[in-house]
Amino acid sequence: MSNALDVDGLEGDGREGKARRLAIESPFLRRMQRRHFFLFNVGPLLGTLAAVGWAFVRPIGALELGLFGVMWLITGLGVSAGYHRFFTHRSFKAPTPVRVALAIMGSMAALGPVISWAAMHRRHHRLADRPGDMHSPNLHGADFGGRVRGLVHAHFTWMLQHEYPNIVHYVPDLLEDRAIVRASRHYQTWVVLGLLVPTAIGALVTRTWEGALAGFLWGGVVRMFVVAQSISALNSILHTLGSRPFQLKDNSRNNPLLGMLIWGEGWHHNHHAFPRSASFALAWYRVDLSYWFIRLLEKLGLATNVIVPTPEQKEARRARAAIKDSNAHLQRNEATHGSQGS
Ligand SMILES: [Zn+2]
Ligand SMILES: [Zn+2]
After folding, report:
1. Is the C-alpha dihedral spanning 205, 209, 210, 216 positive or negative?
2. Reduced DSSP (H G I as helix, E B as strand, rest coil) percent helix, strand, coil of the chain, to 5
3. Minimal CA–CA distance to 252: which of 262, 239, 243?
4. Sequence spans of domains, the chain
5. Which residues crowd ion ligand 2, with CB under 5 Å?
6. Left, alpha or beta for 282 (phi > 0: left; psi -120 to 50: alpha)?
7. 198-216, pLDDT tens digit by residue?
8. What's the 269 CA to ligand 1 centre distance in angstroms?
């Protein structure tokens, strides 16, 4: 992936006269994207409003909270540890049953098939906060209106119409994994399974239609809404607000509160600094649920080669950031003295 990007969005493959298109757009893809948005973003929003309204009539209890919590954990870890850290960034190795399980767990979150998600996310890292980054909040103007438009785009509307990355270019490793190609093709089956399982448990536990509906809403629809909003926060909030200890070229941020709330994903700036690291928190005392899950898999013999940066690598990154910081400080001082002197 060290090829150079040219201005047309075409990339050389190292041979004279050959070029490969990196992303495509078509009316068919736009229709699919809009349909997905209405089914799995607008639909869960309406379902969540209905569930909250119903809770005033029939208060929620242990069943609803339990199903929500368990399905939130399963699908969240599927996206964060599976889709993101394993499939996109290859931060550990796992045998076929674990790979397939992670793909199914992540698919149930309804964020798209694993192969598409990984390709889009690799493109995000390659172009972070530059033209071509399909969900950057930082490309819509620096004034207040531009900032708001950028946040709305990054959190919601980019999904309605966006370029589709060339999967042959971005995820050739995943396309060679037959089990994952099959799991990715059956994406819609897994989404439906993620709705059916809590519905069935709700029905079996209560032996009522109301219980089935409560399971469907809280373990299925509300959970889907919350997980999707959490992952959208990576694109919007975590490229806007928070700390930047490594002073990267992109605008990625760390947000400790989101770090705790969304499976460790809130340490997004750390992640941009060390994309292949299985740990995003980069310290044992910070909450990073997905990393702890990966370490648990490793203890059980279900994950190997877990990648984390060495203390020396972290120190080298910090030192680079400190140099950049002092250079920026010097430039600011020079500009101030220059303007005072003129
Ligand atoms: Zn990433
Ligand atoms: Zn990012």
Report:
1. positive
2. 65, 5, 30
3. 239
4. 25-309, 315-342
5. 252
6. left
7. 999 999 999 999 999 999 9
8. 10
**Ligand number, closest to the Cα atom of 122:** 1
Asked if 51 and 221 touch (Cβ cutoff 8 Å), the reply is yes
> What mean pLDDT is predicted for residues 5-15?
37
Find the 267 Cα to ligand 2 centroid distance in Å: 10
In the prediction, which pLDDT does 339 show?
A: 46
What are the pLDDT digits (tens) for 39-72? 999 999 999 999 999 999 999 999 999 999 999 9
How far is the C-alpha of 148 from the C-alpha of 112, rounded, in Å? 26
Q: How far apart are CA 36 and CA 205, in angstroms?
A: 32
- How many whole angstroms from 201 Cα to the centroid of ligand 2? 36
Task: Please tell me the distance from the alpha carbon of residue 89 to that of residue 84, in angstroms, as a whole number.
Answer: 7
What's the pLDDT at 5? 31
Is the pLDDT at 1 greater than 60, yes or no?
no
Q: What is the pLDDT of residue 215?
A: 97
Q: How far is the CA of 182 from the centre of ligand 1 (A)?
A: 23
Q: Counting Cβ atoms within 10 Å, is residue 111 exposed (0-12), middle (13-18) or buried (19+)?
A: buried
What's the predicted TM-score (pTM) here? Answer: 0.89
Query: What is the Cα–Cα distance from 206 to 199, expressed in whole angstroms?
Result: 11
Which ligand is nearest to the Cα of residue 137, counting in written order? 2
Interatomic CA distance for residues 305 and 298, integer angstroms: 9
